[in-house]
């Protein structure tokens, strides 16, 4: 059904700093989907995510829509409204290193017009509980392991109840065991809360353990795999 489509690109061209990255992108993602974007470095995975979150303008497309926003006509002054419907998780966490977990989260909530102190505290505790880290609320980022920092980053991305979670290489700096824990959390958020997740990754072993819909960026194109068994994983290892 049309009202379930959360991402819709038709014949879209995506460029970065004036350089073509992906052309003729056709991509439909429904609410509640879990989608992997795979491909080699420089193939366009991150550019696609940046286009979805309004960081890269989409100037040429028949259709370019994300969480109800028309990306073709999106004004720079309205990008913050788009991002309030998104949660973003980065490879390098991007936590504010000069403040503790609570203050990191409160900063985000206050910046998105939360004013009631009790509601702010309750929401922070709620998202930390979802990643099983309520006991880390007063810790500074440097006091946390890499896996804990990424779980904190996921919790931060959930603060404003996003319709869509964008995860750009969320396991890229983590060991296999910790990566597995992060994937378990993401899949639980998807299955239990129904959050749509788009994840760019180089870790193709995770696709085998956590199968989902897969799109590949290659040679300026993006194509869908009907079955992960079709993927030549060795081709992507480098």
In short:
By secondary structure, the protein is of the alpha/beta class. It has helices at 45-52, 79-83, 101-111, 117-130, 146-157, 176-193, 204-209, 233-236; strands at residues 5-16, 19-30, 34-38, 63-66, 69-70, 86-89, 164-168, 196-200, 213-218, 221-225. Helix 5 (146-157) packs parallel to helix 6 (176-193).
Please describe the topology of this protein.
Layout (H helix, E strand, L loop, with lengths): L4 E12 L2 E12 L3 E5 L6 H8 L10 E4 L2 E2 L8 H5 L2 E4 L11 H11 L5 H14 L15 H12 L6 E5 L7 H18 L2 E5 L3 H6 L3 E6 L2 E5 L7 H4 L2
Parallel strand pairs: 3-8, 3-9, 6-7, 7-8
Antiparallel strand pairs: 1-2, 1-4, 4-5, 9-10
Helix pairs in contact: 5-6
